[in-house]
């Protein structure tokens, strides 16, 4: 029951996140029947597992309205942007029932923050050196923690603002919403490409005799049918993210402490640098580190789903503390163990080094293979694709991953461009538009009427 409760909490947050992009669906009108079929599957699951669905139906019935329950509930539960809920008498019931506890919200936030970027953090420190690497790490951690709290202040101006897209509309109108929708789409596409590159690289570690392109094509054949599944099945894979990241950090520590000679030992670290060995790759380091803290698209949904929203800031702080510890452990240990020989994915360095437990490291690599396989469909879910278009998009993503096969470049682009806009720039711009100042940390009495 406890596990079901936590999964239900994450599933609710994921559905609110998906509503950010429903107005930017890539599905053709001719494929509406197939999409409706998938939505009906989702509706059926919600009917059996959530009191939210029951209370919503009950509200329509007790008010004596003649409503087609199946069609109306599907529309409300799958298209609950503010503009689509004006016909319901109390659409805020969608976010007032079945809410998450503080612990569940913290779990969801950590699950959103901890991602595949963890694999590239030791390489980011290699590119930047200790001084700039650690400084950039804490700058990204503190600044994105700060902007996550700014989102709460902006959301509090209108209790009917439910999602990141709604916030964009509230601050900058329809143009702002379209712009954020475009950034979301680019962010999701780039993230999906990075996931596919990671799957291919990880399988190459496990099966070095096979061609990398063939492995990616096999991954396409395995992943694509999973993208056809309803979201309620995919939400059960949400636990993999945290479990994989924690396992990687633990195995890295075990490897480093059980090996006593370089390379790959914490007892005898490799040569490292205080400053970047090449200043030309410094921007790459910033993108890699910033991509690790890119969960802001989901934070409005997490906030609205909290049973005790007054604890939001403390929850954000706790989530960032846990995430920061996991990330910093992997980044520092990985760079100490492999130094200038650190590869773009720390698993590549681990598996290519003699003296470790092959079984333990293989288990972690398999977890890293399975994790993208689970997250890839979740990444495409907000775009609301039909089966045919989902297959086509998956093929395009695999093609992009084959043409541009470097994981560090994909993650750096994700962090320095799309994630930086969503996680750092846009929350401050929203605050500027709503409150007339970027000095969000100053007390309101010092800011005057503006």
TrEMBL record:
Q: Which family does it belong to?
A: Belongs to the amino acid/polyamine transporter 2 family.
GO CC entries:
vacuolar membrane
Recite the lineage of the species.
Eukaryota, Fungi, Fungi incertae sedis, Mucoromycota, Glomeromycotina
Q: Where are the transmembrane segments?
A: 106-124, 130-148, 178-200, 212-231, 238-258, 278-299, 320-338, 358-378, 385-404, 410-430
Q: Name one GO molecular function term.
A: L-amino acid transmembrane transporter activity
Compartments where found: Membrane
Q: How does it sit in the membrane?
A: Multi-pass membrane protein
Q: What is the protein name stated in its UniProt record? A: 23830_t:CDS:1
Keyword entries, A-Z: Amino-acid transport, Membrane, Transmembrane, Transmembrane helix, Transport
Q: Does the keyword Protein transport apply?
A: no
Q: What is its main location?
A: membrane
Question: Could you tell me the superkingdom of the organism this chain comes from?
Answer: Eukaryota
Write one Pfam family the protein is assigned to: Aa_trans
| Amino acid transporter transmembrane domain: residues covered | 99-438
């Amino acid at each position: 029951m406890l596990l079901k409760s936590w999964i239900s909490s994450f599933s609710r947050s994921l559905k609110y996140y998906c509503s950010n992009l429903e107005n930017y669906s890539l599905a053709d009108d001719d494929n509406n029947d197939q999409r409706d079929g998938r939505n009906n599957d989702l509706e059926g699951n919600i009917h059996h597992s959530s009191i939210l669905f029951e209370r919503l139906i009950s509200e329509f019935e007790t008010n004596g309205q003649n409503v087609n329950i199946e069609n109306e509930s599907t529309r409300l539960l799958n298209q609950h942007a503010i503009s689509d809920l004006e016909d319901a008498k109390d659409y805020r019931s969608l976010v007032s029932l079945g809410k998450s506890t503080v612990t569940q919200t913290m779990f969801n936030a950590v699950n959103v923050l901890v991602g595949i970027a963890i694999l590239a953090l030791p390489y980011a420190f290699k590119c930047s050196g200790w001084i700039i690497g650690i400084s950039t790490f804490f700058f990204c951690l503190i600044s994105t923690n700060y902007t996550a709290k700014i989102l709460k202040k902006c959301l509090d101006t209108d209790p009917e603002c439910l999602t990141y897209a709604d916030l964009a509309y509230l601050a900058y109108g329809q143009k702002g919403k379209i712009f954020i929708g475009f950034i979301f789409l680019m962010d999701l596409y780039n993230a999906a490409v990075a996931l596919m590159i990671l799957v291919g690289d990880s399988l190459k570690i496990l099966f070095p005799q096979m061609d990398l392109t063939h492995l990616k094509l096999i991954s396409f054949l395995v992943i694509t049918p999973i993208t056809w599944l309803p979201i309620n099945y995919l939400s059960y894979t949400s636990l993999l993210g945290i479990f994989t990241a924690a396992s990687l950090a633990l195995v890295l520590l075990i490897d480093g402490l059980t090996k006593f000679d370089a390379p790959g030992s914490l007892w005898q670290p490799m040569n490292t640098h205080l400053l970047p060995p090449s200043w030309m790759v410094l921007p790459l380091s910033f993108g890699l580190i910033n991509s690790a803290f890119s969960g802001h698209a989901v934070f409005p949904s997490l906030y609205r789903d909290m049973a005790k929203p007054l604890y939001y800031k403390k929850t954000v702080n706790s989530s960032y503390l846990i995430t920061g510890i996991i990330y910093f452990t992997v980044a520092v240990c990985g760079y100490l163990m492999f130094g200038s020989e650190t590869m773009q994915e720390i698993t590549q360095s681990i598996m290519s080094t003699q003296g470790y437990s092959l079984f333990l490291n293989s288990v972690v690599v398999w977890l890293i293979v399975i994790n993208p396989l689970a997250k890839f469909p979740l990444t495409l879910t907000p775009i609301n694709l039909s089966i045919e278009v989902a297959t086509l998009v998956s093929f395009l993503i695999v093609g992009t991953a084959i043409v541009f096969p470097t994981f560090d470049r994909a993650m750096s682009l994700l962090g320095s461009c799309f994630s930086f806009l969503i996680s750092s720039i846009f929350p401050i711009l929203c605050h500027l538009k709503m409150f007339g100042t970027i000095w969000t940390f100053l007390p309101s009495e010092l800011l005057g009427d503006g």
